[in-house]
Write a structure and sequence with these properties.
The protein is of the alpha/beta class and about 220 residues long. It is about 30% helix and about 25% strand. The strands form 2 sheets. It has a 6-stranded mixed sheet, with helices on both faces. Helix 3 (about 95-105) packs parallel to helix 5. The relative contact order is 0.20. The structure holds adenosine-5'-diphosphate and magnesium ion (MG). Magnesium ion binds near residues 86 and 162. Adenosine-5'-diphosphate (ADP) binds near residues 35 and 38.
Length: about 220
Amino acid sequence: MITLENVGVRYGTGPEILRDVSFRLAKGEMAFLTGPSGAGKTTLLRLLYLALRPTRGLIRLFGEDVTAVSRARLPELRRRIGVVFQDFRLLDHLTTFENVALPLHVAGVRADEYRDNILELLEWVGLGDHVNAYPRVLSGGERQRAAIARAIVSKPHLLLADEPTGNVDPQLARRLLRLFVELNRLGTTVIIATHDASLIAATPGARVMTLHQGRLSITPAGEAA
Ligand SMILES: Nc1ncnc2c1ncn2[C@@H]1O[C@H](COP(=O)(O)OP(=O)(O)O)[C@@H](O)[C@H]1O
Ligand SMILES: [Mg+2]
């Protein structure tokens, strides 16, 4: 599903932020990406959702060398990837429902086919009372949950979440984690960047990738903390 070989990234003429990063994740695996602030977690996720090309090294995604793929093909590849951005990126002029429906709407699914699913999903993430609210009236935690719902609504092959529980209390964080675990059980490969050691401890089946000074170490499958 994902292969990185000796990947390096630098921004402009700055130092290498990621250095010789190599790992493989099989389809259906779940992994946490951890490491101190500034370690390069968001940078690594940006490589994987094809917003950034590496300065060197190889990245294969869904069996394709994405470092060589044409720009024209990026939208098609990105449609298989759900992303929870650290800064949410909801559209201000759309309601919660419309924001979450957007990936399906864009894919040409009819509203009557997804309406009930979305209402159920919004109920599950605790946004049942905010279906028709606009992002500006939502709290940070509510926006985060809307962003999570949007990322998972189309059951992507790969889900990338950047600090997805950064703005919610521990109880809700556990609940959201269950959503990711459930999605993973249904076959989605999941990578969650997080500082939260308790989330990692609560997910014994997941692999743990740790970034430190630009280098990545990964626990073998089945040996996660
Ligand atoms: N667009 C950018 N231009 C220059 N430097 C950047 C850019 N984005 C991130 N960095 C730098 O790259 C390093 C890693 O950042 P980031 O990937 O956001 O780490 P993390 O998500 O682990 O906190 C930091 O030193 C940050 O300042
Ligand atoms: Mg980050």
